[in-house]
Amino acid sequence: MAHFGPQQEMEYQRRRDLQRAVLEHLNQSSPKKWDFLCVHFAIERNANIQPVLHALKEAGNIIVGKGKDQMVSITDSGRTRLEETTY
């Protein structure tokens, strides 16, 4: 098993915090356009949100609509993840 160094651990935690922030945002005001989320989190947290959104989508925590608007909504799985105490 590989061990994380301090730099990797910090990056891992930053991504987890960002995932939680996205889920909280969508839980309060879903759906949102994919592009809106990218701009919102780039301004608010100076973050590259694209990999985070893709990871949440792959995990089934968000769903992305088809079409040019690409509306993003939180799923029941995403809400369950938010409720977990050990996020």
Report what the structure shows.
The chain has 87 residues and is mainly alpha-helical. The protein has a domain at 24-83. It contains four helices and three strands. It has helices spanning 6-28, 34-45, 50-58, 76-83, and strands at residues 32-33, 62-64, 71-74. The protein has a three-stranded antiparallel sheet with strand order 1-3-2. Strand 2 (62-64) and strand 3 (71-74) form a beta hairpin. It is globular. The mean pLDDT is 88.
N to C succession of SSEs: HEHHEEH
SS-based class = mainly alpha
The CA-CA distance between the termini, in Å, is 22 Å
Which percent band covers the strand fraction?
5-15%
Helical element count?
4
Order the strands across the largest sheet as they lie in space: 1-3-2
- Main sheet: strands, sense, barrel: 3 strands, antiparallel
Oligomer: single chain
Helix content: 55-70%
**Rounded Rg:** 13 Å
The number of strands is 3
Shape: globular
Low-confidence stretches: none
Compute the average pLDDT.
88
